[in-house]
Amino acid sequence: MSKRKFPENFLWGGALAAHQVEGGWNEGGKGISVADVMSAGEHGKARQITDGVQDGIYYPNHEAVDFYHRYKEDLQFFKEMGFTCLRTSIAWTRIFPLGDEEEPNEEGLQFYDTFFDECLKLGIEPVITLSHFEMPYHLVKTYGGFRNRKCIDFFVRFAEVCFKRYKDKVTYWMTFNEINNQTNFTTDFAPFTNSGIVYKEGENREEIMYQAAHYELVASAKVVKLAREIKDDFQIGCMIAMCPIYPYFCKPKDMMMATKAMQKRLYFTDVHVFGKYPRNIIQYWKRKNFTIDFTEEDAKDLLEGCVDYIGFSYYMSFATAYQEGNTYYDYDEDSMLVKNPYVKARKWGWQIDPVGLRYSLNYLQDHYRIPLFIVENGYGEYDEVVDGKIHDDYRIEYLDKHLEQLSIAIEEDGIDVIGYTSWGPIDIVSAGTGEMRKRYGFIYVDKHDDGTGSLKRLRKDSFYWYQKVISNNYVES
Ligand code: BGP
After folding, report:
1. Count of structural domains within the chain
2. Which of 272, 293, 373, 454 is the most buried (most CB within 10 A)?
3. Coiled-coil stretches, from where to where (predicted)?
């Protein structure tokens, strides 16, 4: 057993998203967001967007775990675990209820003012995502979300208000959560991926996805530029989902397949970090005859809005095998992913691969050479309460193995990592399925899939484990 130390000033904490934790969906002048019109999926199935809020449908995000009213109590738990940072998002609809107004909603701004003050009072640094799967629903209905260039300006205005208002309270920012995830969701789930796109029958979904993603990348770059004008020492990053894709065999064609799949998922990072698209994506658009509205002004904005760090989520890895007839990109993504026989999958099919985290850190550092921030990693599982206790050794094992790999990456590979925020430090609504039973927390919340529950909070065994890791600032391996 050796003790692997983390760097001094390493940021330790947890990560949340406003719509998954806050509730209070129609309080404080808040408008309706995409998340507010997403139904709960059946167990393990994707959720659906409904046309507005309809009677008789259960919307899990409406109350979530009531953080909106209970955040003071919850911050105390985080403090007790020793958090030095907390990642969460600002609900766009608290600040601009419709999204296209000229003036922000003062009550929404005040909510985050008092929330950030409370964090800072406890020595917890807020790490803020501007858009985490919760575009104002009005922008979806009226403008078609990010298929419309106008949404760039709405997003920039929202960001500007946040930067100016919270400039003395927040240093670490991220623009769009898991911006690259939309390449996997040319489905009814698309509006939930920040893009706000609802696809119509018969349209070329892929082309529209690339267009919307381009507008989001431009919006992100403009926001990064603006952030620097407002405050020099803001640290502003992107946020990507990092799911490394391994070749199934060492067959050259499998390797090529894996390379192309990685390019498709990670081109976003190239644009964020270098301010330019990689040639492979431009070439792909040409091959497919996609017409992307991409102006000279856009190219300039992208170049001038490069990020300071890469925030990323890591939960799992994938594997891929070449299939006869498929020419790399021209596949349906799901059908090209194969089960990796060397790693175990969990209930929701996510493959557990701690070494994949070390691989990801190396990959991102080698390609992009700027600091990294692990802003999501965690284990979603059913938890059982027995006599008021939750023995979640499976979660401890998962996190411990990932932290071990993180410490190796820092110590042996010299990776520059700002911090680590585990996903859902308190149980929250699952983004993918809308379930409560897919729990990630160190703190259990008595809330269930049918909306019942006292909302009482309980410390799980993992609470004490994480508390120890943070206070020691090392893991044993
Ligand atoms: C990421 C999202 C989060 C979060 C997490 C876990 O993709 O950024 O919002 O929810 O995944 O996913 P799920 O909640 O579906 O288990």
Report:
1. 1
2. 272
3. none
